[in-house]
Amino acid sequence: MDEYEYLEDLSDERSKKFIDEMNSLTREKLERKAKELYPIILQKLKEPQIVGLVAYDTTNPTILTLDGQSKVRIGDKTVFVAPQGYVIYQMWKIYNSEEQIGISMGRKGSDKTTTLIISQGEAKKIGENIQNPFYYLGQLCYVKVYRDSAPPDGGDYPTQRVICNDTMVWGKDLKPGEFIQVNVFEDLLAIVKHRGWSYGELFIGESFEGLRKIDEGEVIDVLGVVKGELVYQKKMKL
Fold first, then answer.
1. Strands (E), the chain
2. Looking at residues 81-85, what average pLDDT do you find?
């Protein structure tokens, strides 16, 4: 016979008494410790948390921190602080630029973002729902995200296109669920077209019209160029 069977009936006076006793015991054992730990945890939460990191130059990293407000630092110097109520969601080292950093920020709880370029402590807005800014042949380019409407060249949405000098230059075949990452090494373009989060196709070329696919597979990630050769990683099947 189960001596605690009465606990299945919450209206039973014995059940009510048991719950009260357990609540009292819990408060006695944990409440004092909780009061001791709360200010320590609160202080830790207020300390700067590194949530993003990219290379700026050979000696300084660019660091995205969060300590109540989103901040961008280059080395030990804070170069941008998001306005109150805004969060910096992404940060990029802008290809073919020695000193510019791109950031994408938006209001807390909103999926609409604004992208800015930070240079020498000044921030310049380049547009909404924009990702991956870079320079190619002297032109400012970026990936435009069409979330709420179809792109001007047609196709279903949500989707993405590459824009250079306000002109669409690549991505007309992109479909919903596909997204791209553009990497530029001087005049060499390397674009990864992802389908979902695990599969990608790698395209390279010296112009958007001349891009050719050289590989595909799981989780392709472009790392850089070493001795004139493109270096990338992908998940290999054993």
1. 49-55, 61-66, 70-74, 77-81, 86-93, 101-107, 114-119, 122-128, 130-136, 139-146, 159-164, 167-170, 178-185, 188-195, 199-205, 212-226, 229-235
2. 89
